[in-house]
Amino acid sequence: MTTTTILLLFLSLLVAGCLSFFQYFYKAKNKSKLNLFLAFLRFLSLFGIMLLLINPIITRNTLEIIKPPLAIVVDNSSSIMALDANKKTVEAYTRIATNAALKEKFDIQSYRFDAEFEPSEQFDFKGTQTNLGGISKELKSINRNSRFPTILLTDGNQTSGNDYVYSFDPRNKVYPIVLGDTTEVVDLKIGHINVNKYAFYKNKFPVEVFLNYSGNKNIVANFTISEGNSVVVKQSISFSSSKKTAVINVLLAANKIGSQIFKATISGPEKEKNSYNNTKNFAIEVIDQKTNIALITAINHPDIGALKRSIESNAQRKVTIVNPKAINSLKDYNVLILYQPTAAFKSVFEENKSAGISSFIITGTSTDFSFLNQEQSNLVFKMSYQKENYLASFNPQFNLFAIDNIGFENFPPLENAFGTITAKGNADFLLSSKIRSMETNSPLLLYAENKGKRDAFLLGENIWKWRLQSHVDTQSFSKFDVFIDKTMQYLASSSSKRALVVNHESFYNSGDAIEITAQYFNKNYEFDDKARLTIIVTNTETKQTKNYDLLKGNAFYKVNLDGLAAGNYIFTVKELNSNTSYSSRFEILDFDREKQFVNPDVEKLNQLATLTQGKAYSPDQVAVLIKSLLEDENFKAIEKNKTTRSPLIDWVILLILIVSLLATEWFVRKYNGML
Prior knowledge:
Elements: H1 3-26, H2 33-54, E1 57-66, E2 69-75, H3 78-82, H4 86-97, H5 100-105, E3 107-113, E4 117-119, H6 135-142, E5 150-154, E6 174-178, E7 187-195, E8 198-200, E9 204-214, E10 219-227, E11 230-239, E12 245-253, E13 258-267, E14 279-287, E15 291-297, H7 302-311, E16 317-322, E17 335-339, H8 346-355, E18 358-363, H9 369-375, E19 379-394, E20 414-423, E21 427-435, E22 438-450, E23 453-459, H10 463-474, H11 478-492, E24 500-503, E25 507-509, E26 515-520, E27 533-539, E28 545-549, E29 551-552, E30 557-560, E31 567-575, E32 580-589, H12 602-611, H13 622-631, E33 638-647, H14 652-671
Parallel strand pairs: 2-3, 2-5, 5-6, 8-14, 15-16, 15-17, 17-18, 18-23, 25-32
Antiparallel strand pairs: 1-33, 3-4, 7-9, 9-12, 10-11, 10-13, 13-14, 19-20, 19-21, 21-22, 22-23, 24-26, 26-30, 27-28, 27-31, 29-30, 31-32
Helix pairs in contact: 1-2, 2-14, 7-10, 10-11
């Protein structure tokens, strides 16, 4: 409280006292006790009003004790149940969470995780995925600017996400409680199968199988791959204490069009504790047509190799790099990529006028734009000889096909000549360009269709940098490759327009996300965001049927079918307003990642504990863990001084008191005939 405020308060006391004295003593004829009481009421009410006018700030200091957090994180995946450790997990959690001494020292927080991380004190051990890599990020977000210990009850077997060992903050101690029997038992396991998603009819496709052995005896295992009741591969594999892995490479025949389901099996002479991981199904989609793409260029550029690798990541595509003067016939190709065309491409453009093959034109600093203005009618180029770098801006309203923003705005700029580019006719922009932060309102990537011929234009070179940046951002080329593949699919597919377009896979692994997306277009082939889409899914064996609504996303509708059992399914997507429908089928392969383990991963959990200066424990050592936490001087409660400042005018009770005093004074005077 300032000196000025104190002086004003003393002045208020003086003024209130003087006015009260003047009213009830100086002017009064009778100086009775009643006058004294009324003067006191008047003094209090006047002083209260002056207090409100002065409005002093009242400061209060309170001490607050802040306990350090203690995060108890429980693995809720079904692998805990498979390792018969669910009862011990609940017992260990209960002993820690209800310990009175820990409650007094720590702010105990309970969480569970499987594919997702969430606060919970209840565990059902039914999760189909185990993601340990995201725990640290979630805990740091919840307990910002705090140092805290984490008790991690898990078997350490991870099925998704980044490696958890290096994802935890080394400044915060982690105490893993290792769940499951650590005794090493004999176990044969099919670890991983590498196989392409597609194969071509009457060709052979490679399959790579990784086998693992746990045990110390010398054994000979039998490995087979079967299709239906027929065994197509059979081999004997030797394992020992020094040889615990094997890799099998075989070629299988794609002898029928459509999905082919195979089953890989390994078996040994001894009975195993976990035989579920001895079998793994895999599938391949056999197709009888390949998209041949001509990448026509007269120059050497890193974009050429990047485009070829990206397109051929889909086995349905084959890219042939050819010089415009060396190409014999366009009829051998389904799509043409014209890289930085010049006058040397004249014969290609002339022949394609009659062939009508869809083209993907990529421009750059070596492009002859005057030539392009003569040979195509989708764009008008008014370009200078000056070079410019163009950044990408994603158009969320693009609806020719379903495409996600893969981070285009963060990609390096493309280089092109500086100038004005104007689209003519029916063109759809996926990306527009900007120079630094200034929008140019010009296209960077667009798609056009004219008289049944489809074309795409990428207006800038150095797309190889985009592919590299996408890998830096996501540790994979897949998102960029899917983006390029959708462009190729658009150009290679028939130009006939369907009102309902549905995207789905032919097969899924059990436990994986099963998403089906759809687009519905009106008569003008515009995306209809008021459509009502439903899907009916039927199991062909049990005849069980389920209905779902498709939810509208960004220029597409989507449904998630997670939770379906392994088996064959037929489905129909229907638009209810127009009764337009699409029917197809898919298969869910029987594969449970959480049943692949026979022991906890003790080595990785010990490594995690060492890196964070913690220690790994077994469920029987909970008492030792509790004692260690209670004795650890690194985790202490913090005494925090909390200062609150409140202006007196916010005190409603003071206003009520003033009104009460004035009302009492009036009532007393009225009662005694003084009014």
